[in-house]
Amino acid sequence: MKRRKAALKLPELRQFLSKAKSEVGLDGEVSVLLGSDTTIRTLNRNFRKKDKATDVLSFPVDGFQGEGPKQAGDLAISLDTAQRQASEHGHSLLMEVKILMLHGLLHLAGYDHETDSGQMAGKERVLRKEFDLPSGLIQRSTKPPVKQAKKVSAGIKKRGRLR
Predict the structure, then answer these.
(1) Which 3 state secondary structure label does DSSP give 146?
(2) Residue 138 or 28, more confident
(3) Whole-angstrom distance, CA of residue 133 vs CA of residue 136
(4) Contacts of 51 (CB under 8 A, 6+ apart)
C-alpha cells in the first residue's frame, strides 16, 4: 500500500487514539482496522447491508461480560477513501485518519448524527478544535454543495451581446 505505514506515523496515531478516546469518555479498548475500500465495502455489506465502500465504520461492544480488558468497540477505516478525502480537503492522510478516528469514537460512545439533534456535531466540533483538526465529517456533509458556474452557450454573441 504505497508506504502508507510510514506516512501514517503509527505511534502518533496510537497516542491520538488514546487521548481522543479519553476525551470522548470511552472506557475500554478500541481496535482499529486500517484497510482498503474493498475490505470496508465487504464489512459495510455484511453488517449494514450497504454494498459500498465508506470512510469509517464503528462497531460498539454492548455489555461486554468476558474476562480480560473491557472492550469499547472496533473501528474500520478505509485508507483508500481517507487518501481521496485528504486530497480533496488539502491535508495529509494522517490528519484525515485522525478525523475519521474521532468520528468513529463518537459513534462508539453512543452519539449518532443521523438521529440526534446536533449533539454529536457539537461534540465533534469542540474536540476537533481541541485536537487542532480541520472540518469533520458531519460539518462536511451539512455544508451546501459548491455552486458551479452555469455554462453560457449560444445565447451570447461575440463582444458579449445577447441575441
Answers:
(1) coil
(2) 28
(3) 8
(4) 41, 44, 45
